[in-house]
């Protein structure tokens, strides 16, 4: 079968995987989890929260909102997945006990794992760790504002923020307005670590930074290409769409070096009970490229299309620019280069190309397996090129669809929390301020850490997230943060960052309401460009001293800026923030009346149903995508004894089944058969070739550190690749960086695996 390459396409049930793993994703264990949690003592609160009119906290698929917790934007019911329950369950835990921080010093707190830190409970009063002190202690609001005001009086270039996409649009808008009024563009955000290459690549090529496919449009497609996404774990309700697409005769092409069981077969609780037992087929074809080689694979698909005369020349001519250069590049790239770079055979690539051309309406979707690479932007370009070459964009049921991460990460970008600010927003802000914005380029997350390490940052405010644990090279991040004078964390739950990411002088933690208990109405934006309205709520922490993010940011801004350029305190009524958003953010006009209409809406100008692109020429720009040179280092390149025996693999670092980003909920990953966090999942042939066995303990060494006593687990990952979990693995490597947007190459980390 394989013309040019010996890489076999494993077909499920895979013989290479660990025999302990289930044969499909989802299924009865999900129902079991639901039952366990909803019938537990916290069950009543959990149900109340699920029924609360607010968007799901977890991923950007965006379930929930005004039509009730179990509804998507198409009004379809039974749309909350187990991940949603998991995230709520973590938030309705009791408060950290009053005297906890008197009992435990910072050294002790630093011994906690991610899971232990989360399990301490909710932050319920503000605390400070002062320089030279060993314990966090309670602090008054007055003193917080005094310290903060002084800290924000530094040179604007030396003040920065970091944010994570769980907070509201209103908080995001206020954060960037406060920072830009100060004269600082240092608005680092978790999206820098995530979909920034999608935003950047899409903006350059088709003039918009987000998905051009609505949920409704997706329902018309008859083929989905899903690359570098483990939706079965991370966007479970997207799986419903894949199941329905297969049921109407459509095709699903999965591109992923790891054969994820839930992408082969998935049993969704949204479908008749029968399917819970049998599961539904997901992948029509499953391609397993070498990590980091997607450009080669997509170029291969394009070449197969070219050779079978399936390129839509009329479409390219009418609606695109630079297509000739891309076609020449495809012609000049040999099959041998393509197949050796991506490790997928010509036959498999041709089969995928045929599935695409035999379909009428194709959607191309992707997640971190595409973006978290040194050439993440090229990966995105190569996907866009494939969509354009086949005329699959600008028509219902077609298009490009980055599958976004955090539940409001896209809203943060829309609100201007980014170092790559849209011109329209810049102009609107300049009008509001009555002066130009600072021209100094802001720090993205990577640049922020570099700047902090170089002693160039005095003050940092973190609106959510875990800057310390989300970044590679943990020791360096810790050192860098420790050079900052003042760090203010706004958070709902404790995490590793609060105990390791300590400032030089004052580290302050501000306990905030989460989305469903916020006393203000707020909004969020889903990855499908749908804006949701969240009702006010109440917290179960009756005696806690929490604050709404909006209240904290406006009070701080009022103290820094007085009444310039707005009456900040008036904005504590979030209705007025929405008025400002409507005036400033393109496509958000309808938010001005959402308080009266309660009408959730799709953002204007985002969904493309004609091939007219908001670029300067009105055409899509195609970019030539050079194939990556994927060489792994050799043993001698690692700092080990000369005679060390081992194997070098390209490590894909990411999420287990039961974690949300840096927060670990359960230590096992049952769908991949991984019993605990200190494991490496490898291909059986690689393990045997290196002379190791399953369950053997090994050392895994990266370019800045190593993890010892790591257990080897067999899995359906292609040869030459491995899988480990973050945040733990972030200790061992300094990542390659996608220079165009600062995104670390988390999905191709060369490591040496050797015996102990
Ligand atoms: N339950 C849960 N849900 C989440 C999250 C969570 O942590 N837990 N996190 C949220 C966030 S912020 C995000 S960004 C998303 C993340 O969602 P995903 O992107 O789905 O998550 P990852 O585990 O990072 O990696 C996705 C897949 O990329 C594959 N991959 C790795 N390298 C490559 C490659 O070179 N090429 C290709 N084609 N594939 C590759 C991996 O095998 C893996 O299956 O999920 C969001 N939703
Ligand atoms: N090695 C490796 N590293 C990675 C990745 C990877 O795949 N591999 N993925 C990267 C990706 S895609 C992302 S998005 C980042 C994630 O990076 P971050 O977004 O920085 O991290 P999270 O773990 O999502 O942050 C969780 C914390 O947010 C706080 N929080 C939760 N809800 C709220 C709220 O409503 N308000 C406030 N103020 N705080 C809240 C809680 O304190 C919680 O502990 O990690 C990145 N790091
Ligand atoms: S798919 Fe995402 S948004 Fe929908 S319920 Fe699950 S975690 Fe929430
Ligand atoms: Mo993310």
UniProtKB/TrEMBL annotation:
Stretches assigned to the Molybdopterin oxidoreductase domain: 129-489
InterPro entries given in the database record: Asp_de-COase-like_dom_sf (IPR009010), MoPterin_dinucl-bd_dom (IPR006657), Mopterin_OxRdtase (IPR006656), Mopterin_OxRdtse_a_bac (IPR010046), Prok_molybdopt-oxidoreductase (IPR050123)
Single GO molecular function: formate dehydrogenase (NAD+) activity
Cellular component terms (Gene Ontology): membrane
Keywords: Iron, Iron-sulfur, Metal-binding
Pfam families in the record: Molybdopterin, Molydop_binding
Gene3D superfamilies named in the record: 2.40.40.20, 3.40.50.740, Dimethylsulfoxide Reductase, domain 2
Domain Molybdopterin dinucleotide-binding: 650-750
Region Disordered, annotated ranges: 1-22
Statement: the UniProt record of this protein carries the keyword Iron: yes
Protein's recorded name: FdhF/YdeP family oxidoreductase
């Amino acid at each position: 079968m394989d013309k040019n390459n010996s890489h076999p396409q494993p077909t499920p049930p895979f013989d290479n995987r660990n025999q302990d793993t289930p044969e499909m994703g989802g299924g009865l264990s999900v129902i079991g989890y639901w039952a366990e949690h909803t019938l537990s003592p916290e069950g009543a609160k959990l149900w109340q929260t699920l029924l609360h009119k607010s968007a799901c906290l977890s991923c950007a698929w965006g379930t929930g909102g005004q039509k009730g917790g179990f509804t998507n934007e198409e009004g379809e019911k039974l749309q909350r997945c187990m991940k949603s329950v998991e995230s709520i369950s973590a938030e309705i835990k009791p408060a950290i006990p009053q005297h906890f921080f008197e009992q435990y010093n910072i050294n002790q707190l630093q011994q906690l794992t991610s899971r232990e830190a989360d399990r301490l409970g909710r932050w319920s009063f503000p605390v400070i760790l002062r320089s030279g002190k060993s314990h966090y202690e309670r602090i008054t609001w007055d003193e917080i504002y005094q310290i903060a005001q002084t800290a924000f009086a530094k040179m604007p270039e030396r003040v920065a923020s970091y944010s994570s996409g769980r907070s509201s649009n209103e908080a995001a808008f206020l954060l960037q307005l406060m920072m830009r009024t100060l004269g600082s563009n240092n608005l680092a955000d978790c999206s820098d670590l995530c979909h920034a290459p999608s935003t950047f690549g899409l903006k350059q090529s088709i003039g918009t930074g987000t998905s051009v496919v609505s949920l409704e449009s997706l329902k018309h497609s008859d083929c989905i290409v899903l690359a570098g996404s483990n939706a079965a774990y991370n966007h479970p309700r997207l799986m419903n769409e894949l199941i329905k697409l297969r049921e109407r005769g459509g095709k699903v092409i999965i591109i992923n070096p790891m054969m994820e069981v839930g992408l082969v077969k998935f049993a969704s609780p949204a479908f008749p009970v029968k399917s819970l037992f049998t599961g539904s087929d997901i992948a029509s074809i499953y391609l397993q490229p070498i990590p980091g080689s997607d450009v080669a694979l997509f170029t291969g698909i394009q070449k197969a299309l070219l050779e079978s005369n399936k390129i839509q020349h009329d479409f390219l001519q009418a609606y695109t620019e630079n297509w000739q250069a891309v076609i020449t590049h495809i012609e000049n790239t040999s099959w041998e280069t393509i197949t050796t770079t991506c490790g997928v055979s010509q036959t498999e690539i041709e089969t995928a190309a045929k599935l695409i051309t035999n379909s009428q309406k194709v959607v191309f979707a992707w997640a971190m397996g595409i973006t978290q690479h040194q050439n993440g932007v090229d990966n995105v370009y190569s996907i866009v090129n494939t969509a354009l070459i086949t005329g699959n964009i600008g028509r219902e049921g077609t298009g490009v669809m980055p599958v976004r991460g955090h539940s409001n990460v896209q809203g943060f970008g829309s609100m201007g929390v980014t170092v790559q600010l849209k011109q329209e927003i810049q102009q609107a802000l300049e009008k509001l301020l009555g002066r130009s914005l600072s021209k100094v380029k802001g720090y993205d997350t990577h640049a922020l850490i570099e700047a902090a390490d170089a002693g160039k940052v005095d003050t940092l405010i973190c609106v959510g997230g875990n800057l310390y644990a989300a970044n590679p090279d943990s020791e360096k991040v810790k050192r860098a943060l420790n050079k900052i004078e003042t760090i203010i964390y706004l958070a709902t739950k404790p995490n590793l960052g609060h105990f390791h990411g300590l400032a030089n002088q004052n580290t302050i933690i501000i306990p905030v309401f989460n989305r469903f208990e916020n006393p203000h109405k707020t909004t969020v934006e889903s990855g499908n460009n749908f804006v949701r309205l969240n009702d006010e709520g109440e917290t179960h922490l009756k005696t806690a001293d929490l604050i709404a993010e909006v209240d904290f940011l406006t009070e701080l801004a009022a103290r820094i800026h007085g009444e310039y350029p707005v009456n900040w305190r008036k904005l504590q009524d979030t209705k007025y923030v929405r008025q400002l958003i409507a005036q400033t953010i393109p496509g958000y006009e309808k938010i001005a009346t959402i308080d009266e209409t309660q009408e959730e809406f799709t953002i204007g100008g985002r969904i493309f149903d004609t091939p007219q692109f908001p670029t300067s020429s009105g055409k899509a720009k195609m970019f030539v995508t050079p194939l990556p040179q994927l060489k792994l280092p050799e043993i001698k390149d690692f700092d080990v004894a000369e005679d060390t025996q081992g194997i070098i693999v390209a490590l894909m670092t990411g999420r287990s089944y039961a974690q949300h980003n840096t927060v670990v909920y359960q230590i096992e990953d049952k769908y991949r058969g991984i019993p605990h966090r200190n494991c490496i999942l490898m291909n059986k042939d690689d393990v045997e070739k290196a002379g190791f066995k399953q369950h053997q303990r090994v050392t895994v060494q990266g370019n800045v550190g190593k993890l010892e006593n790591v257990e080897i687990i067999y899995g359906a990952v292609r040869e030459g690749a491995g899988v480990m979990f973050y945040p733990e693995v972030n200790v061992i490597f300094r990542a390659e960086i996608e220079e165009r947007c600062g995104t670390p190459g988390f999905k191709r980390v060369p490591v040496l695996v050797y015996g102990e």
